[in-house]
Structures are given as structure tokens and as C-alpha cells.
Amino acid sequence: MKVTCLTFNPFQENTYILHDDKNECVVIDPGCYEKQEREQLKNYIEENGLKVVRLLNTHCHIDHVLGNKFVADTYKVGLEIHPDDEQTLRAIPAYAPSYGFQMYEEVLPTAFLQEGDVVTFGETELQVLFTPGHAPGHVVFYNGPEKICIGGDVLFQNSIGRTDLPGGNHETLINSIKSKLFALPDEVTVYPGHGPETTIGHERNNNPFLR
């Protein structure tokens, strides 16, 4: 499986495209808002001969969903989120203009993800882990054979997700990290929603928020 990161919007949000040798791909947390950002995403998909088969959100804060409608409309795929984050998604149109996103277009989920679900594309499987705390319906996507985790805004390099937004809870987030992510092997690479990738082992041993 190949993991490609494209960083978009003023929040410097990491959008991920995952694909394998079968050239089916999933798009996770498309943050592309400006026309040139959407063209960058589209060009990457076209240049690599990929077929988009799934549109996934780790969670539904505005910086992670700005390109949802573009991806859904362009590639005729439905949005998949955890049901506990639908309220987070539905709240965005009311506040998007105050963040400068006057052209935000809403798309609602067509399917819901639950703990233990398996997302498939090509010959690849991603396990869904429920990791609330940063957002009520936050999930991460884990591939065991290749030791890869698409982690959204739960765990960062030497940091953790913020919990001061609606639906956030610090104790819940810490529990999610310790019970779900720290149950994974040290060698697992975590690709976060912002900033550089890290590993479970590095964060277990060095993250100042988790000692």
C-alpha cells in the first residue's frame, strides 16, 4: 500500500490518498478548498491511473471536510463517517463563513463506520478503530500487515489533538490513545492530520502529554 499526503488549506491539513497495485484508492479527509488544491488532488489521481472507490473522514472538523463534496461529486462516491460525528459535520455550514470559507458546500454521509469495520480497496484492508476525544466520532484507519495508521487528529509527533472544541474531552482522548493506539506495535507509522508522521514507539517513549 502506498500512502500519499497532500497538505491543504490555511490549517495545513493532511489529506491522504491510499492505493495498492490494483490502482483502487481511498481518499481520507480531503481538505482541498481552493481550485488549485482540488486540481492538485485530481491531477495526482489521474497521473497515477487511480480509481477512487471510497471517501472517508477520520472526523468532521471543517479543515478535514472542505473537499468532501468535490471528491463525492467528481468520483461518484459516498461519504463514510462514524455516526457520532454527524452532528459535527452538520454544524459546519453555520460557522464556515466566519472562518473564511464562504464557498463551503455540504455533503452528508451515505454510510457509517463503526469500531471493528473493515474498509477494503484493491487487495488492501483497513481496520476501523473508534478513538473519540478530539471529536465525538473520531476514528482511525489501521493496516496491520504494513503497520500503517491514518490517525487524524488524535496523536501527533510529540503532541496530541486539542480537546477544547465542541464534543472534545481530554480524558477521553488520552484513553483512546492509550487503549487503542498504544495497543499497536511500536513500529507502526502514524500519519496524522497535521504535521509529519511519527511512530507508536516514539510517542509511547517521548510524548510529553502521555507520560
From TrEMBL:
Family matches, as InterPro entries: MBL_Glyoxalase_II, Metallo-B-lactamas, RibonucZ/Hydroxyglut_hydro
Domain Metallo-beta-lactamase per the UniProt entry, residue ranges: 12-194
MF terms (GO), sorted A to Z: hydrolase activity; metal ion binding
Keyword field contains Ribosomal protein: no
Keywords for the protein's UniProt record, in alphabetical order: Hydrolase, Metal-binding, Zinc
Cofactors: Zn(2+)
Protein name: MBL fold metallo-hydrolase
Organism of provenance: Pontibacter diazotrophicus
